[in-house]
Amino acid sequence: MIERIMRENDMLEKEEIFSKVLRAGRRTYFFDVRATKADDYYITITESKKFTEEDGSFHFKKHKIYLYKEDFGAFAEILEEMTSYVLNHKGEEVISERHQKDFKKEYGSEKSEIQRSSFTDIDFDDI
Fold it and tell me: What domains does the chain contain, in order, with CATH numbers?
């Protein structure tokens, strides 16, 4: 049993050739070069996102993409096209509720207006 586990660990270690990590808020991206059984290389991109429960415990959800050499060119070309499109149309500034404290959604301001108008001021003398 121990020998089998050691062999599996050796295979996993041999499989990972080169790695980089990108930490981005609650998300972490892992870029790994791995080897096939035939000793050819491919890339995995893993997104790991942390979720916190109400009780303070947490768990991670992971999503993985496998990218093989025959797809590198087309993948890189489309990724470049998509990132250029976003930057050309919206610039590099991040526009989101999470990144800007003064960001207001249209429906959010309406909702808060409704909440303010439905609130009744009560004085302790009224009780």
Answer: 2-118 (3.10.450.700)
